[in-house]
Amino acid sequence: MNRDKIITIVGLGVVGGSYALALSKKGYTVFGVNRSQESLDAALSAGAIKEGAHSPEEFFAKSDIIIIALYPNQIVEYLEKYGKYIKNGCLVSDVAGIKSCFVDRIVGGIPSGCEFLFCHPMAGREKRGFKYADDKVLQGANFLIARTDSTSEHAVTLMSDLAKDIGFGNVRITDVATHDKVIAYTSQLPHAIAVSLINSDDEDSDTASFIGDSYRDLTRIANINEDLWSELFLGNRDNLIATITSFEEQLGAIKKALCDEDEVLLKKLFIKSSQRRVLLEKKK
Amino acid sequence: MNRDKIITIVGLGVVGGSYALALSKKGYTVFGVNRSQESLDAALSAGAIKEGAHSPEEFFAKSDIIIIALYPNQIVEYLEKYGKYIKNGCLVSDVAGIKSCFVDRIVGGIPSGCEFLFCHPMAGREKRGFKYADDKVLQGANFLIARTDSTSEHAVTLMSDLAKDIGFGNVRITDVATHDKVIAYTSQLPHAIAVSLINSDDEDSDTASFIGDSYRDLTRIANINEDLWSELFLGNRDNLIATITSFEEQLGAIKKALCDEDEVLLKKLFIKSSQRRVLLEKKK
Predict the structure, then answer these.
(1) Strand, coil or helix: what is A143?
(2) If you placed Cys at B63, which of A28, A170, A243, B8 could pair as Cys (CB 3.0 to 4.6 Å)?
(3) What is the pLDDT of residue A240?
(4) Angstrom distance (rounded) from CA B41 to CA B35
């Protein structure tokens, strides 16, 4: 990998900050753009960025790669405002958890001579801000590239190489529609479940004394950034509603087996889930 | 804690084996009973037990404490068969995840001069057998004691001290009915959810490439011992059905908010779940 590229990260939150740390460690030249001075100062003193600024004009004019690590809805607006400063030939990318809802506006709005590649690093934390950024969260994580009709091979190769260079494990190339369908199941549904599990607690019980690792694991992501996740949920609502319905059917099967005292069916469901979980670990 | 007690563990699986390891390390004299010679040999060579046997007559006759680490349904039968060998004054206990379904049969069947104390260590693993036993899983874990009308203060104090001595964190004393109600929510419901989540996967998709830590965390316990857990589910079915229903209502609220595109309600649910999760960590 040729590391003499100049890269600008917009948004030094947990994901953008982790990218910046990982890229700088590998020797890339990284500039950071962020609204708050506090995060810029922290990123500078952590060595995550070479220079920081509140707005991107100067950095965009000299960057080979731009990664916009903002909330999905902010990306379109950001490009409308600052797209004109982007250098010809630049590859622009994102880290958003959903894609379909803004793909057309971005593909239509990106300056000619540049390309936008839709990327989704499957790494994050329930906390917010640069102080929780850590390049370790990227190590071995899945990296998704969601193609559109206008995606070039060059862009896919460049980002795949970059992702692997900073530690991502498996790079999976898919299309935007498949990405959003599968992500509704693997990412948004687990968050909906975690939220529902902890919210269904009987508030009178001293729950903390009655829990083991399983409850702790299943509710970790119930501590959720409400602004980001309401956007992800609503921006992918048809897929998410469909996957919630499939899940409800499976849980309904367990409930019915309990009502019917159907031990055979319960065991069948448990054997199926065990086999699938073992298979998942093998594919890791 | 007076460690010159003689303790017999019946069943050297993950939980029984972990107890044996922890107790032996602390200097208690531990005897182990297990059907398979393989586990007895492994426990002996790991220093988890002083002696092992396939049946308990000899050990029961000299033990001060007996911990029956078998499946719930096996405990009653085991005591019917071997109860007569138990030494006068012995404290007998269990590790079962549910209680109400066999409490009466045990309290009625325990030899006079002995006491049975219902205990539930909130520690375990998704794997089976002594080779996965590890006293580390007990460290800091919750330990539940479920009282009945005939539970003595002496027994509660003795087991609380023993649990703390081998590394358990919080010891929570409750009653059998409350235990089963809360455990349906904190233990069985998470397992029902994990099973349903992985079973609702579209089998055609290459899911493993699309997952992050959240999906991995939420499905870990979908690898489930079907014999044990069908017993736990069916033995606590009324409580479990009630808690599944509460959970369904919460998930239904998210689904409705999606259908209605109700961002305000979604955020409200997320803020509530986040506050509860933060509170849970504080109480740890």
Answers:
(1) strand
(2) B8
(3) 98
(4) 11
The verdict on a CB contact (< 8 Å) between B280 and A207 is yes
d(CA B137, CA B82): 30
Residues of A in contact with B189 (CB under 8 A): 197
- Tell me how far CA of residue A220 lies from CA of A138, A226, B21, B276, B280, in angstroms: 19, 15, 30, 11, 10
Rounded CA separation B122/B137 (Å): 9
The closest alpha carbon to A248, from A205, A203, A189, belongs to A189
Please judge whether B276 and A201 are an interchain contact, meaning their C-beta atoms are less than 8 angstroms apart: yes
Q: How far is A111 from chain B (nearest CA, A)?
A: 30
Distance (Å) from the C-alpha of residue B237 to the closest C-alpha of chain A? 6
Separation between Cα atoms, residue A62 and residue A85, nearest integer Å: 9
ipTM exceeding the 0.90 mark: yes
| Out of B222, B237, B261, closest to residue A274 by CB | B222
- A122-to-A42, A141, B272 alpha-carbon distances in Å: 24, 6, 25
Chain B 176-215, residues with CB within 8 Å of chain A CB atoms: 178-179, 181-183, 185-187, 189-202, 205-215
- Written as tens digits, the pLDDT of chain B (284 aa) is 678 899 999 999 999 999 999 999 999 999 999 999 999 999 999 999 999 999 999 999 999 999 999 998 899 999 999 999 999 999 999 999 999 999 999 988 889 899 999 999 998 776 778 988 999 999 999 999 999 999 999 999 999 999 999 999 999 999 999 999 999 999 999 999 999 999 999 877 789 999 999 999 999 999 999 999 999 999 999 999 999 999 999 999 999 999 999 999 999 999 999 999 999 988 76
**Domains of chain A from N-terminus onward:** 6-174 (3.40.50.720), 179-283 (1.10.3660.10)
